[in-house]
Amino acid sequence: MAVLKETRQLAEPDPTGYAKSCREAVAIGRGFDTHITVGSRSKVYVCGLGASAIAGDVLQALARKRVISCRSDATRFAHDGTGLVVVISYEGDTKESRACLELAMRLQSRDASRSCMCVTGNLDLAEHARSRGASALVVPPGYARGRKLAYLVLPLVGVLSRLGVLEAPASWDDLYSAVTPSAQECEDAAGIAAKIRGRYPAVYGTDKAAGPAAMMWGLLLREVAGLRTWTGAVPDLLHDEVCTFSDQVTGPMTCAVLLTANAHGRRAAAFSAAWVRELGASGVAVAEVRAWGESQLARLFSLVQVGEQVAEHVAVARGVDPSRAEAVLRSYKRSSC
Questions:
Q1: Contact criterion met (CB below 8 Å) for 47 and 87
Q2: What pTM value is reported for the model?
Q3: How far is it, in rounded angstroms, from Cα 94 to Cα 271?
Q4: Are 43 and 83 in contact (CB under 8 A)?
Q5: Buried b (16+ CB within 10 A) or exposed e, 97-118
Q6: Do residues 150 and 301 lie in contact, with contact meaning Cβ atoms separated by under 8 Å?
Q7: Whole-angstrom Cα distance, residue 210 to residue 110?
Q8: How far apart are CA 96 and CA 112, in angstroms?
Q9: What is the DSSP letter of 270?
Q10: Closest Cα to residue 27, out of 150, 163, 167?
Q11: What's phi and psi for 89, nearest 5 deg?
C-alpha cells in the first residue's frame, strides 16, 4: 500500500514547472478587471465540459453553497433566477459552450440582475463574448493535464474572492509548495503506477473535497495513458459498484486508489480503513494518497499533481507517449482559431 508521507522534502525548487504555472494563473486573476457584481445571496453557476467541468466542481467545493457546478444541467441557470454565469471552455469554441454562452448573454441583455463571463484560451470565443457585453478572462492556451486545471481554477478563485463569493487562501505559497512534488511523492507515484499496471483503476475521493481530484485523476489516466478509469466520491459511491470490486473474480483485476484531502477528517479515515480491509481481502490492489497543504485549495491540487505523475508512469509502462495530450491540444487549437 502506497501512502504519501506527512513530511516533505522537495528534491528541486520546481522540477515540473507546475508551481510557475500556478503563479502565472494567480497573477492573471489579480490582473483581471471586471465590473461584474454579485449579490450577497446570488449564486454563481459554472458551466463546462471535461476539465472545464472539473474546474466548476473545484470552485463548488471551495465556495459550498454559493457556487453551483452545472455538470449535469448546463442550462440550470436559466431557471434559477438571478446570478453570475461563468462559461468555461479552454480548448476552443465548441458548439456546447457557444450555445450555453449565447443563452447566458441573452438572459443578461434582458435582465440587469444577471451577469455573464467566460474563461477560455481561445481568443475568438473571448472576442465574441466581449462583443455581446460579457466579460472574458483569457488564459494561456495549449496546456494539458493539471496545468490546464490550474489556469481555469486559480484566476477564478481570485476574481470570485474579490466578489465576496469565496475566500482566497491566506497565503498562495502554501499552494506553490503543494504542487511541487517531493522526492518521496515521486517515488510513491511510481509505486502506485506499478500497482495499476495490468489492472483497471478505480479512483475515489474519501471526502467531498477530494471528489474533484478523483475526477481529474480519471481524466488524466484516460487522456494521458489511454486507460479506462472509474471515479467517484463519498457519499455518492454506489453500493453495487463496491460489491463488484469486492468480487473474488473482479477484485484481482482492479486497483483502487483512495484520495483524501482532509487528513484529519474522521469519516474519511474510517472510510479508507474500511475499504482497505474489505478490498484488500478480495485481492484488490489498494493505494492511499493523502493531500498535503494547509488550505483546501492546496490540498486538492497536491492530489492532482500526484495523479499527473502516476498517469505519465502508466502511459510509459503501456507504451503510450505521455505528450500526446499536448499534441492533441495544439492540433485542436490550430483548427479552432
A1: yes
A2: 0.85
A3: 39
A4: yes
A5: bbebbebbbebbeeeeebbbbb
A6: yes
A7: 38
A8: 24
A9: H
A10: 150
A11: -145, 95
> How far apart, in Å, are the Cα atoms of 178 and each of 13, 68, 117, 204?
12, 26, 29, 20
Radius of gyration of the chain (CA): 20
Name the grid cell of 194: 506499478
DSSP state of 180: S
**Mapping DSSP to helix (H, G, I), strand (E, B) and coil, where does residue 34 land?**
coil
Contact 244, 193 (CB under 8 A): no
What type of residue sits at position 290? R
Per-residue pLDDT of the chain (337 residues; tens, 9 = 90+): 444 444 445 455 676 788 999 999 999 999 998 778 787 778 899 988 888 889 999 999 898 778 988 876 667 777 766 789 999 989 876 778 788 888 888 888 888 778 889 999 999 889 988 988 889 999 999 887 788 999 999 999 999 999 889 988 889 999 999 999 888 888 999 999 999 988 889 898 888 789 999 999 999 999 889 888 888 877 666 555 666 666 655 666 788 888 888 866 666 667 677 777 777 777 788 888 999 898 999 999 999 999 999 999 999 998 888 776 554 444 444 443 3
